[in-house]
Amino acid sequence: MHHLRRPEGRIAYDLHGTGDTGTLVICVPGMFDHRSSFRFVAAELARAGHRVAVMDLRGHGDSDATFDRYDSRATAGDVIALVEELGGGRAVIAGNSMGAAAATIAALERPDLVAGVALLGPFLRPAAVSRLTRAALRVLVSGPWTARALTLFYDSLHKGRVPEGHAEQKARIHAMLRPAERRRAVARTIEAPNETIDDAGGLTAPAVVIMGELDPDWKDPRAEADWVASVVRGRVVMVPECGHYAQSQRPDVVVSALEDLIRRAEAVA
């Protein structure tokens, strides 16, 4: 494990692949997730000769919970800083859920550093949530029951295939959420006023949208994937037997899509 030092704290990340010749890939998980959700993808890409850095969000995993902001734009700043930390070359960014919004923002802000974006189960616009649901969510993240409740919710988003090592991953999530300062950080991440990204006209990097066919975050996952693809001018890969976490549920599909994206990014470099 490594740490990226930021003005208000540290971001934890793992680095796979020791060579400096392959494409740098930065993997960004979503809220109340741990960087190990990209464990299979990172290992396969490293075996293919790429360098892969998998980071934790602020307040998640082994990152510090000392930050003032926990929104996707702040995460985009961490992504950009990590690319610079690892040499400043053009990187491919793979982001899941909220991490997909951060990847898109990073690509728009620093096209000189981002060669391609892969958006997995992407939230480029906040989901429509009723007042009752918002109130229930605030209760969910406001007490000692938060760790168990969010771990159960995390589990429920894995419609379709159960990933290898899923029990161990759930244990990591539960342990991550037990300290009070981490529960507060995750609650602030969930409640952060994230913007809608509906105009990515300045995006120059090639993009791919990877969406689980069973993703329960969307009434119509295909329709949401098509909308995101229209924003980033990317292609869509629908993943069978998969909910919200394609990187762990169907790493075979994700690795194939990322390798194609890397080839496209290198072709336009």
Describe this structure in words.
There is one protein chain. This protein is α/β, with parallel strands linked by helices and 269 residues long. It contains ten helices and eight strands. An eight-stranded mixed β-sheet has the order 1-2-4-3-5-6-7-8, with helices on both faces. Helix 1 links the parallel strand 3 (24-28) and strand 4 (51-55). The protein is globular and about 50 Å long.
Q: Regarding quaternary structure, how should these chains be classified?
A: single chain
Strand count, sense and barrel status of the largest sheet are: 8 strands, mixed
Give the CATH superfamily. Alpha/Beta hydrolase fold, catalytic domain
SSE class = alpha/beta
Low-confidence blocks of residues: none
Largest beta sheet: what is the strand line-up?
1-2-4-3-5-6-7-8
CATH topology: Rossmann fold
- Quickly count the helices: 10
- What is the overall shape? globular
Q: Please provide the count of β strands.
A: 8
Radius of gyration: 17 Å
How much helix, percentage-wise, in residues?
40-55%
Number of domains: 1
In N-to-C order, the SSE pattern is EEEHEHEHEHHHHEHEHH
Q: Determine the mean pLDDT.
A: 93
Ends apart, CA distance between termini: 30 Å
Q: Give the CATH architecture.
A: 3-Layer(aba) Sandwich
Briefly, what CATH class? Answer: Alpha Beta
Helix/strand layout:
Blueprint: E1 2-6, E2 9-16, E3 24-28, H1 39-47, E4 51-55, H2 72-85, E5 91-96, H3 98-109, E6 114-120, H4 131-140, H5 146-156, H6 166-177, H7 180-191, E7 207-212, H8 221-232, E8 235-239, H9 246-249, H10 251-267
Parallel strand pairs: 3-4, 3-5, 5-6, 6-7, 7-8
Antiparallel strand pairs: 1-2, 2-4
